[in-house]
Every structure is written in structure tokens, then in C-alpha cells.
Amino acid sequence: MHSHSLTLVSPQDYISTHQIRYGIHPTPFSRCLLSMFDRKICGLHFITKNDESTLVAEMQSIWHLADFVEDGAFTKSYVEKLFQRDGPPFSLVVKGTPFQTKVWQSLLSIPVGTLSHYEGVAKNAGHPKATRAAAHAVATNPISFLIPCHRVIYKSGEIGKYRWGADCKKKILEWEGSLETCALARNFSFFHTGNQLKQKESVS
């Protein structure tokens, strides 16, 4: 997979005339809600509890000035490319604080097949002491899969929590070939830190 570009929408750029088109589609892991803002992806949510209307309402609360239009024919052309193993890069657009955006940028730097932990994400975001805040930003990631919050696990090597459920997270990691790294992490500290893989014996 290629690197995706991430843009933070400022209040000056976000006006009421913008339209968000969305659609619900199958994926290798579960159905998803894909939302598009000016041909950029602004939301990707997995549907694991038949909660489509709740997720649409959540997007409407985030982008409360936008006009939401269901247009599955339009979003289908994008979702068909999202889950290709060597798919094209996408333009992503988010609304969030500067700190959240730094955390989401940090997630984008974790390569496919590689994992990180919350401390590493906070450090790569430039706030090494803000682990708890970084974990919250990871949990509120609005563009699942493409901003790969699923690649963040516990230092112990346990897969950990995921908004869409542990089973969904496990399926994605299996698809990316990362579960072997989870097993290694149970015996070693084996994580992505910046542009390097760090492997050293864990101290219990």
C-alpha cells in the first residue's frame, strides 16, 4: 500500500456549501460506511452492530455544516480500491485538533505488516509524555484502516481494544500479515519507532 496524504480542514476552508457523499459497502472484514468530502475520504467506519444510522449521525455531528447525500454508486468506485493489497494512495481530510492530527499522521507512518504501541505513537507525534492523550486520539480516528489505528497494540503483544471489535482487528492484522509480529512482541519489544524497527529483549 502507498502512503496517503492527510489534510486538516480549518474553519476558514469548511463552509456550508460542501457536500459529503456516503455509501455502505462490503469489505473483507465487515461492511463499511465510506464518506467522501470533495473527492477526499473524510470517514471510514466498519459496521459491526447494524448501526449504520448511528454512524451516519456521528459523521453529521462532526461535519454539521455539510449537506449529506447517500450516493453508493459514487463511493463504490473508491471502496473497490481501498482494500487492494497494493492499492493506490488516497487523499484524506479530517477535522480535529492539531494534537489529534499529529497522532493520526504518526499512525500513517507505521508500515503495513508492522506494529507500534501507544508510547511509540505519542513519541512519534512529538509528545512522548502524552501517552494517554495519544491513546484517546487513536481511539477517535475517523478514517479506520487507511489511518491504521489497528496497527497499535499493547507492549505485551496483546492485540488490545478496537472500536470495531477485537475480531475485526485480528482479521485486518491477519490480512496484513502482522499477527506473527504480535507473537514476537510477547517475548520481545518489537515495534515500529519512527523509521526503524526496534527489537530488544523485554524486561519483565
Distance between the termini: 35 Å
Percent strand: 15-25%
Which CATH architecture of the largest domain is right?
Orthogonal Bundle
As residue ranges, the low-confidence spans are 195-204
What is the typical, i.e. mean, pLDDT?
Answer: 84
Q: According to CATH, what is the class of the largest domain? A: Mainly Alpha
Number of spatially distinct domains: 2
CATH topology of the largest domain: Arc Repressor Mutant, subunit A
Task: Please describe the topology of this protein.
Blueprint lengths: L4 E4 L10 E7 L5 E7 L2 E8 L4 H11 L4 E4 L1 H11 L8 E4 L3 H11 L9 H7 L6 H9 L26 H11 L2 H7 L2 E6 L2 E6 L3
Parallel strand pairs: 1-6, 2-5
Antiparallel strand pairs: 2-3, 3-4, 7-8
Helix pairs in contact: 4-5
Describe the structure.
- This protein is of the alpha/beta class and 204 residues long.
- It folds into two domains: 5-94, Methylated DNA-protein cysteine methyltransferase domain (Double Stranded RNA Binding Domain, 2-Layer Sandwich), CATH 3.30.160.70; 98-201, Winged helix-like DNA-binding domain superfamily/Winged helix DNA-binding domain (Arc Repressor Mutant, subunit A, Orthogonal Bundle), CATH 1.10.10.
- The protein contains seven helices and eight strands.
- Strands 4-3-2-5 form a four-stranded mixed sheet, with helices on both faces. Strands 1-6 form a two-stranded parallel sheet. Strands 7-8 form a two-stranded antiparallel ribbon.
- The protein is globular.
Highlighted features:
alpha/beta, 204 residues, 8 strands, four-stranded mixed beta sheet, Arc Repressor Mutant, subunit A, two-stranded parallel ribbon, disordered C terminus, Double Stranded RNA Binding Domain
